[in-house]
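Dig into my protein:

:::
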Amino acid sequence: MASNPIFSASFLSRNVLSVILGGGAGTRLYPLTKERSKPAVPLGGKYRLVDVPISNCINSGMQRIYVMTQFLSASLHRHISQSYKFDHFSRGFVEILAAEQTPTSTSWYEGTADAVRKNLIHLTSQPFEYLIILSGDQLYRMNYLEMLAHHIEKGADLTVATIPVEKESVPGFGIMQMNDSNEITRFEEKPQDPSLQEELKLPKDWYPKLDIHSDKELWLASMGIYVFNRQTILELLDNAHTDFGKHIIPGAIKTHKLSSYVFQGYWEDVGTIKAFFDANLDLTSMLPKFNFFDMDSPVFTRPRFLPASKVNGGVIENTLLSDGCIVHKARLKECMLGIRSIVGADTDMQRVVMMGADYYESLQSIAKHQEEGEPSVGIGPRTRVVNAIIDKNARIGSDCVISPDGKPNEMDSELFHVRDGIIVIPKNTVIPNGTVI
């Protein structure tokens, strides 16, 4: 990821401020958000969702970063404080802005725009000319300098990052129209009407100009990534509107100059269980769509100083093992094993995202749980797990079967949940020996 030469480090430290929005309850990712905020959900075996936008900022030279949250933020606070420490002589920081009561507001964040509005007192205390607003639940790699350069070149008040999407995705996104100067002329939030969708379609004769190599019908969808001029954000939030997509952007088209920055790389909204599951499993493929091995723009996270993973035999195919795992003669196919994952002998796992554990269990703890008839942390021997997400610190016994076969696409139980046909075992759940799910 090459830096844009027009932006010096001093320019960025004085003029650019980044905000990552992670304040929502994360209901679409439940039960992974039952005990943690959405940005703190583990990703790719050893990372957290919030590491992606923070790393994009750092790789773009933007080191003044606020993360806004309000639900179950303790683990997110801990992760950020232990992961991101800048030089004492730089202006860099990554700080949490949690929802708080003030003399003028006693309510929680009521939307994306409302979250930024309630924190303007903190944001405006910093020097900046450009405010970059990012989402905390997306997997992508972007050089924000290129978007900022586009914003400045077009003389825009507000720039919206957009990505071409196919027809089936249109009802789930804010869809935009722009003119041949990339100026946004129309914005429709999640259009459902087929005739309206047809009106918003991207003209095919624009494809060469936008470097789009496709013969399919495409629409421009908002990525939830914005660049605001300082004065613009103050003007557009001087009201009671709560959401950028539903209220602020459609209204701003009439009063300000909005530009579309068309992004062509891989981008995935991992805000649902299915999208999260698919994105993690794609990382186990031969050529994943997102490359964590790109050292030109690495994804940063907390250094844990764990030992190398240990495999005591077995058959392992298209599987990622994170730090500190122990696998005993198991069969793993298309699996993502998080830090400190322990898998027993003769266990069969296919298409499983296992988040691992926060600790290694002591011999005394193992013996104590055995006396009480409970399994150890991890997955016991001779167990079969298919199409599942296993959250941290789960204790799954021996001779168990965990599969969504024969179950409805959506259901809830004491020991598990099913979302989009995927079994989810919540954090700290105990599955007794011999259990069939």
User: Anything to note?
Assistant: The longest helix spans residues 244-255. Residues 99 and 328 are 45 Å apart (CA to CA). The two ends are 46 Å apart (CA to CA).
